[in-house]
TrEMBL record:
<comment type="similarity">
    <text>Belongs to the PhzF family.</text>
</comment>
<keyword id="KW-0413">Isomerase</keyword>
<dbReference type="Pfam" id="PF02567">
    <property type="entry name" value="PhzC-PhzF"/>
</dbReference>
<dbReference type="InterPro" id="IPR003719">
    <property type="entry name" value="Phenazine_PhzF-like"/>
</dbReference>
<protein>
    <submittedName>
        <fullName>PhzF family phenazine biosynthesis protein</fullName>
    </submittedName>
</protein>
Length: 263
């Protein structure tokens, strides 16, 4: 059996930036164990699989460790493959996922993703989070990740996490965030994202985390439209807008590789 596979750098305008995702178009669903093995073999933070379904597509995302409920950069990558490689030309692309219907439109500023918002709530800082980050944040909240808020971007850059400690936490992972400062001042907020439980110690650019960060910073900064930058080694930029109980994320994507899987 041969399967098409594409590798796309998402939330960037140039190759070797943003977050790489593998995208595998399928005509029908394969066994879940096989999908997981493909994702493990790819060893990227996410591999996206989709099959046609009515006027849209069913979309699933796998880390090297397990299937996840929501992934932003691999959704963007899947949309990019459909529009740029597979001839999709409708104004709106609809994916049916474990997080409900996700809509993607192509604009002159990039791909706009419409995702559910998740408002983090204040919590007491777990001991494992404090030990794992090594520096106490000024505020800790929780949604599907822990959100650790720091005063400055420099403190985010200086974090050297203990991933064995962060693995012990009950939620998906930890997102460290701060208002932009210094040379990052041309954006509203910055972040770094750690998911060692998923075998992704630090994710380069995390669309789903901005479904939590956008409501938080929109409330904190008193504005609905925000720009964000993820301070990973590769780095990535997102434009975020809070619209009621939805978050719209806009970013670009570029092709890196296309090939075939032999199974």
């Amino acid at each position: 059996m041969k399967l098409q596979m594409f590798q796309v750098d998402a939330f960037t305008e140039q190759v070797f930036g943003g977050n790489p995702a593998a995208v595998c178009p399928l005509t029908n669903w394969l066994d879940d164990a096989l999908l997981q093995r493909i994702a493990e073999e790819n060893n990227l933070s996410e591999t996206a699989f989709f099959v046609p379904a009515g006027d849209g597509y069913q979309l699933r995302w796998f880390t090297p460790e397990e299937e996840v409920d929501l992934c932003g950069h691999a959704t963007l990558a899947a949309a990019h493959v459909l529009y740029s490689q597979l001839g999709f030309h409708q104004p709106e692309l609809v994916f049916s996922t474990r997080s409900g219907l996700l809509r993607v439109t192509r604009t002159d500023k990039g791909y706009q993703l419409d995702f559910p918002a998740s408002m983090p709530q204040p919590v007491s800082a777990p001991a494992e989070l404090l030990a794992g980050l090594g520096k106490a944040p000024v505020e800790v909240l929780a949604a599907f990740d822990y959100i650790a808020v720091y005063p400055t971007a420099d403190e985010i850059k200086a974090l050297a996490p203990n991933f064995e400690q962060l693995k012990k936490l009950g939620l998906r992972g930890v997102v460290a965030t701060a208002p932009a400062s210094g040379k990052d001042k041309d954006v509203d907020f910055v972040s770094r994202c750690f998911f060692p439980k998923l075998r992704v110690n630090e994710d380069p650019v995390t669309g789903s985390a901005h479904c939590e960060l956008t409501p938080y910073w929109a409330h904190k900064l008193g504005k609905q439209q925000l720009s964000a930058y993820q301070l990973s080694k590769r780095g990535g930029a997102l434009r975020c807008e809070l619209k009621g109980d939805r978050v719209q994320l806009t970013g670009n994507a570029v092709d890196y590789m296309m090939g075939e899987i032999y199974i």
